[in-house]
Design goal:
alpha+beta, two-stranded antiparallel sheet, 6 strands, 95 residues
Length: 95
């Protein structure tokens, strides 16, 4: 599997994930606090997963370090990260 490398200027570290250009150039610039391990953990063990109408996939997980739920959006392949952000409106209820 090919992985793209994005450089997070603010925190001065490399993130190695499969990602869109938008994620690398826009999201990481706006949300420089994002960490690779948070995204990878949410993708591998999401609290909730949902397919959008455009076939992109939303994954949610709780990040203890920031005490917030993070939404990670991938392309339809479920691997290529397109967006990631704290989701203030997400409420988790175990089934």
């Amino acid at each position: 599997m090919r992985r793209d490398v994005a450089y997070n200027v603010s925190n001065n570290y490399f993130i190695i994930v499969k990602a869109t250009r938008y994620f690398r150039e826009q999201v990481l610039t706006k949300r420089s606090y994002l960490k690779e391990e948070w995204i990878l953990e949410i993708l591998s063990n999401p609290l909730k997963k949902e397919i959008q109408q455009d076939d992109r996939i939303r994954f949610w997980g709780f990040v203890d370090e920031i005490k917030k739920y993070l939404r990670v959006v991938t392309l339809s392949d479920g691997e290529t990260v397109h967006n990631a952000f704290p989701d203030r409106n997400f409420e988790w209820r175990e089934k």
